[in-house]
From TrEMBL, chain A:
<dbReference type="InterPro" id="IPR035969">
    <property type="entry name" value="Rab-GAP_TBC_sf"/>
</dbReference>
<feature type="compositionally biased region" description="Basic and acidic residues">
    <location>
        <begin position="12"/>
        <end position="30"/>
    </location>
</feature>
<feature type="domain" description="Rab-GAP TBC">
    <location>
        <begin position="97"/>
        <end position="306"/>
    </location>
</feature>
<protein>
    <recommendedName>
        <fullName>Rab-GAP TBC domain-containing protein</fullName>
    </recommendedName>
</protein>
<dbReference type="Pfam" id="PF00566">
    <property type="entry name" value="RabGAP-TBC"/>
</dbReference>
<dbReference type="GO" id="GO:0031410">
    <property type="term" value="C:cytoplasmic vesicle"/>
</dbReference>
<feature type="region of interest" description="Disordered">
    <location>
        <begin position="1"/>
        <end position="30"/>
    </location>
</feature>
<dbReference type="InterPro" id="IPR000195">
    <property type="entry name" value="Rab-GAP-TBC_dom"/>
</dbReference>
<dbReference type="GO" id="GO:0031267">
    <property type="term" value="F:small GTPase binding"/>
</dbReference>
From TrEMBL, chain B:
<dbReference type="InterPro" id="IPR027417">
    <property type="entry name" value="P-loop_NTPase"/>
</dbReference>
<dbReference type="GO" id="GO:0005525">
    <property type="term" value="F:GTP binding"/>
</dbReference>
<dbReference type="Pfam" id="PF00071">
    <property type="entry name" value="Ras"/>
</dbReference>
<dbReference type="InterPro" id="IPR001806">
    <property type="entry name" value="Small_GTPase"/>
</dbReference>
<protein>
    <recommendedName>
        <fullName>Ras-related protein Rab-14</fullName>
    </recommendedName>
</protein>
<keyword id="KW-0342">GTP-binding</keyword>
<dbReference type="InterPro" id="IPR005225">
    <property type="entry name" value="Small_GTP-bd"/>
</dbReference>
<dbReference type="InterPro" id="IPR050209">
    <property type="entry name" value="Rab_GTPases_membrane_traffic"/>
</dbReference>
<comment type="similarity">
    <text>Belongs to the small GTPase superfamily. Rab family.</text>
</comment>
Length: 375, 213
């Protein structure tokens, strides 16, 4: 124990000589009191030391778990991805959160590359987006910004990207102008606009691309980005397909009501509709609303369980804040949900774990979604 | 439009400080502030919507029941100014059509005059032009006469300087004699500190305001 024991090192001074002497009885009483004080201080110090040891041990243990998990992932699971990805053990380890060292790899494998995008294609698309920007600026950029809204070809929205890049994870200070990832993030988004001019750049994309970029190489991040955005849920939202978005909101409400009937009724009564908070959460996959580490774990689970987990997380957040939300009027509840307070992993994931994604006895997320789509 | 500084204005209004690199709004965000008008406490609820054109279908549903609106453009980007009329059309179409009527030249105090009156640096107010739409709704919940604007803080960026409270009270200054049953739309040219890169002149904005009521 290296801490100085300052409290036990008190020096008991003798009584100044100019004062009358203490009686023997009084001196004895004071001596005992002094000893008691010292003992109490010692006990506290021992307790503190134990506590420090415990936290240090926990930290070591945590580090060891992460290290051993990361070995297991790299040595056992990743090389045998197809056979190992769905084993009970893998799934449990997955729920505990992916070690940062394998996170990017697992995300890549889970998202896959059904679109068969190559790194060469990425290079071509980046070059094309640079060219596009150059030619737009030569022919008066302000005009082109006008045409963005009019034309069905949204390739011109490449000019809008720069407005959002600096405002993406600005607290990390890496995406701002002059930051190490500024150009790369711009490239990925620009390349996507050239790859899917029918979708173009849509606000929210910068967060998704940035999350990927924080965990993998630029070309790989682009491949994952394009494939991720090609998923049904992301396609519905990023194409602002109102009909499909409404179906997703309705499906969410089915499970919201199932899990939190009281809060659901209150929101209904106050007209606090899911679009008000879900749009931000789904578009950015929680990377804007939650802290980076919590969001990363949500992404881990999204990679394991698919879109369903995004909505499960949403209900988990509502569950976590339910006691407070039940006392709030509309505007404060809406404010809370669009600007969430920070909380720990543990707290949120306990709540997510308690969300049941089964409705009416046996309908799962996919069934509900299919049912709603049919109507 | 996106990146004109809507959220930044809101942040300034509710938190009283400038926020650099304010994250872009996806969908909608909310702000509240209690202001005191003629001794009466009034709670403002402000809905801050996403600026990108693509989100318009979503944000359209948030116009209903609004007592007023602030239309913001960026004086350094003409396109944001050019798009104002379509935003205005939305604002007008999506509030109750039966109650919305337009009145002309009700506000005699423009930003320019207000500046002289209050001795506020020109750069701040030069682009603030009240546009108004009259409806059967609540100006009274937004503000009324008698609130003297708080002194403006100096800041490096305009979004941090512009006080919505001032704008709101300015709008009301000329409205005291009214019953106060109106929807009001304000036009705000943001980023006045970037005057050197100005792309839209005050006169143009004023004309836009006049033409639209």
């Amino acid at each position: 124990d290296s801490e100085p024991a300052s409290t036990t090192a008190l020096i008991l001074e003798h009584r100044p000589s100019n004062l009358p002497k203490k009686s023997a009885e009084e001196s004895e009483k004071h001596r005992l009191e002094y000893e008691k004080m010292i003992q109490r201080a010692r006990r506290n110090e021992i307790k503190d030391a134990q506590k420090r040891n415990r936290t240090a041990k926990e930290l070591r243990k945590h580090e060891e778990t992460v290290a051993s998990a990361s070995t297991k992932w790299t040595r056992d699971i990743l090389p045998n991805w197809e056979t190992m990805r769905n084993t009970a053990n893998t799934r449990t380890m997955w729920w505990d959160g992916l070690p940062p060292s394998v996170r990017g790899k697992v995300w890549q494998l889970s998202i896959g590359n059904d679109l068969n995008i190559t790194e060469e294609l990425y290079g071509i698309l980046v070059a094309r987006s640079h060219e596009k920007l150059r030619s737009m600026h030569e022919t008066q950029s302000s005009c082109s910004e006008d045409t963005v809204s009019l034309s069905a070809d949204r390739e011109n929205s490449v000019d809008l990207i720069r407005l959002d890049i600096s405002r993406t994870f600005h607290n990390l200070c890496i995406f701002q102008e002059g930051g190490p990832y500024h150009e790369v993030l711009h490239d990925i988004l620009g390349a996507y606009v050239c790859y899917r001019p029918d979708v173009g750049y849509v606000q929210g994309m910068s967060f998704v691309a940035a999350m990927l970029l924080l965990n993998m190489e630029p070309a790989k991040a682009f491949i994952s980005f394009a494939n991720l955005l090609n998923q049904p849920c992301q396609l519905a939202f990023f194409r602002l397909n109102e009909e499909m978005m409404k179906i997703y909101f309705a499906a969410f409400e089915v499970f919201f009501e199932e899990n939190l009937p009281q809060l659901f009724a209150r929101f209904k009564q106050h007209n606090l509709t899911p679009d008000m908070y879900l749009i931000d959460w789904v578009f950015t996959m929680f990377s804007k609303a939650l802290s980076l580490d919590v969001a990363s774990r949500v992404w881990d689970m999204y990679c394991r369980d698919g879109e369903e987990f995004l909505f499960k997380t949403a209900i988990g957040i509502l569950r976590l804040h339910e006691p407070l939300l039940l006392t709030m009027e509309f505007i404060h509840a809406a404010q809370l949900l669009t600007r969430l307070p920070t909380f720990t992993h543990h707290k949120l994931f306990v709540h997510i774990n308690n969300v049941t994604m089964v409705s009416h006895g046996n309908r799962r997320w996919k069934d509900v979604l299919a049912l709603l789509s049919r109507d | 439009d996106m990146g004109v500084g809507k959220s930044c204005l809101l942040h300034q209004f509710t938190e009283k400080k400038f926020m650099a690199d304010c994250p872009h709004t996806i969908g909608v965000e909310f702000g509240t502030r209690i202001i005191e008008v003629s001794g009466q406490k009034i709670k403002l609820q402000i809905w801050d919507t996403a600026g990108q054109e693509r989100f318009r279908a979503v944000t359209r549903s948030y116009y209903r029941g609004a007592a007023g609106a602030l239309m913001v453009y960026d004086i350094t980007r003409r396109s944001t100014y050019n798009h104002l009329s379509s935003w205005l059309t939305d604002a007008r179409n999506l509030t109750n059509p039966n109650t919305v009527k337009f009145s002309i030249n009700k506000y005699t105090i423009t930003g320019e005059q207000y500046r002289v009156m209050k001795e506020i640096p020109a750069v701040i107010w030069s682009h603030m032009v009240p546009v108004q739409v009259v409806a059967e709704l609540t100006v009274s919940t937004v503000g009324n006469t008698g609130t003297s604007p708080v002194p403006l803080e100096s800041s490096t960026r305009t979004a941090g300087v512009l006080s919505l409270e001032d704008i709101l009270s300015l709008g009301k200054t000329d409205n005291s004699s009214d019953s106060g049953e109106e929807d009001v739309i304000f036009l705000i040219g943001n980023k006045g500190d970037l005057d050197a890169q100005r792309d839209v002149t005050y006169e143009e904005a004023k004309q836009f305001a006049d033409e639209n009521g």
